[in-house]
Amino acid sequence: MGKYHADYLLKGEVAHAELAAVCSTSPHKLEAYKDKVKVFSDGEAMIKSGEIDAVLVATPHYQHTSLGICAIEHQVHLMVEKPISAHKADAEKLIAVAEKHPAIVFGAMFQLRTEPRYLKLKKLIQDGDLGEIVRINWIITDWYRTEAYYASGGWRATWKGEGGGVLLNQCLHQLDALQWLVGMPSKVRSFAQLGRFHNIEVEDNVTAYLEYPNGATGVFISSTGEAPGSNRFEIAGTRGKVILENDQIQFTRNENCMLEHSKQSKIGFSKPEIWNVAIPFGNAVLPHAILMRNFINAIRDGEPLIAPGADGIHSVELANALLYSSLIDQTIDMPMDGAAFETKLNQLIRESTFEKKVVEVSDEDFASSFNR
Length: 372
Description:
Layout (H helix, E strand, L loop, with lengths): L1 H9 L10 E3 L14 E3 L2 H6 L5 E4 L4 H12 L3 E4 L7 H13 L5 E3 L7 H11 L6 E8 L6 H4 L21 H11 L4 E8 L8 E9 L5 E7 L7 E7 L2 E6 L2 E7 L3 H7 L9 E6 L7 H15 L10 H17 L3 E2 L4 H14 L21
Parallel strand pairs: 1-2, 3-4, 4-5, 6-9
Antiparallel strand pairs: 6-10, 7-8, 7-14, 8-9, 10-11, 11-12, 12-13
């Protein structure tokens, strides 16, 4: 992801932003940039160098918190790739530091918030076209990954290196979009299978139940081992339902509220009259760059952030809670106890005996899933 962001910045896709430096602990990844920008092998050294006004952190998960705190404390504006931290307790630490430095802009890279399809769904909800939300279902199982993917880095799919699997890595964007659209659940119960389809120690197959403060319920299903997989998002309300699937939005609108119809109808099997509407939408052009332009405008002109960094705690908390529920075989009340999950995660790290083989995979192999 760091290479992807660096390349569009070098191409001038973000006005008023100049790529001044890059950093990696892998020397071969810096070769292409040596004649273009300053290069560093240590992230904190780059942040403290005085060469940059802002930094985008796109490293393994556990470094997001420490590098983020370093940036904020040294007056460097911060954009963090997902997740903002590997677990909720660390996210709370990062956000607490950011709150002490309100002049420093802190953004999160949740580019789905720029996609017209999700903006259309948000408008339907905010305008009341769905009525009160009663149920959500999201089946996102087209994250298929091979053993070669997981072997591409020693940190991948390990408790110590990543802190989780499909929930924390692949699904963070969907979990952010979910809470952005319908809010956070009040309780969750999850069943996560560890290494079901791959030689890994973290979860790669998950089915979860969600319950919301208003009584709405939901199901969230994801996997990196299922092919061809599905991506179907359905939201049902008292005034109708909307389905996002196969690059189409289908809105079925009730003529009247289903609850009112139930009370008023004299016929046992009648239903509200419906309208079927196909809602058109396009695709965002370079959605990551859109967020970066917004980040730069926030620094220069105070433009409101599309994805404030502090919002990133919600998707981290959902990923943690869904995993934690399965690990301890219990329903989790939200908000979850971040310290309890951190303790469990540290236990998994201490007790791990997992060893993995690492192979080299080109950066281009990861490009296909950037915008999902």
